TrEMBL record:
Disordered: annotated span: 115-155, 227-249
Biased composition range(s): Basic and acidic residues: 124-145
Protein name in UniProt: Retrotransposon gag domain-containing protein
Domain Retrotransposon gag intervals: 3-70
Protein's organism: Sesamum latifolium
Amino acid sequence: MLWFNQLPIGTIDSFEQLSQRFLHHFAINKRYPKTASYLFTIIQREHESLRDYVQRFSEAVLEVPHVNPELLASIMQQNLRRGRFRESIAEKPPATLDEFLIRAEKYIRIEETSDVRTVTPSKRRAEEEGHSRRPPNDNQRDRRCGPPPDITRYTPLKAPRAEILTIAERQGIIQWPLQMRENPKKMKSDRYCLFHKDRGHSTKECLHLKDEIEKLIRRGYLKEYVERNNRPREGNSRPPREGREREAR
């Protein structure tokens, strides 16, 4: 060890002294939990879309334990760029992060609809023709058809799947699902899924995310989040395939 070899000769007389020098030297590598003040640094960038910012802010909130809802609303109002969504937050602050995500979705759709209108017809036609010529790869085919039916046993996890999703995204290993089909009933739902970025069910309830995490673990990823003391659980709670397909529509 380089650090140990650089210790001056005769400066260590006991194991206790060695332990103290070791702790002082490597204390800088210790990771401390982030506080609410960290969220004030998550500011919407000049050309950052609302969807990208909401995703980034939501991930940051997961790193901060026990954030007061009132403080959370104040931070969001301050960090957002000026616009209709920021005005909405100021008029009626959201009580929870889930409420913030649901209300943000409305303004995300408005923003993305406006962006689509700015695309010229010729450019849109060229993009559509390009997509029609490109055959779907295996990953796209799998995501369109839903999760594979052969996963019946799931590895016990040490952390919530929402937290593992954040880690997997940072590592660039997550395979995002295709956009869910429009369903008017979803608009009335108060549950939001970070994996689908849509309403209708919560992240905790998301079966597609459950399958995606299991596939990553079987490929050798996310081993640090595997609960070693328990055996894999039977997937008896999985609903029949017909119910799962109805959910994705």
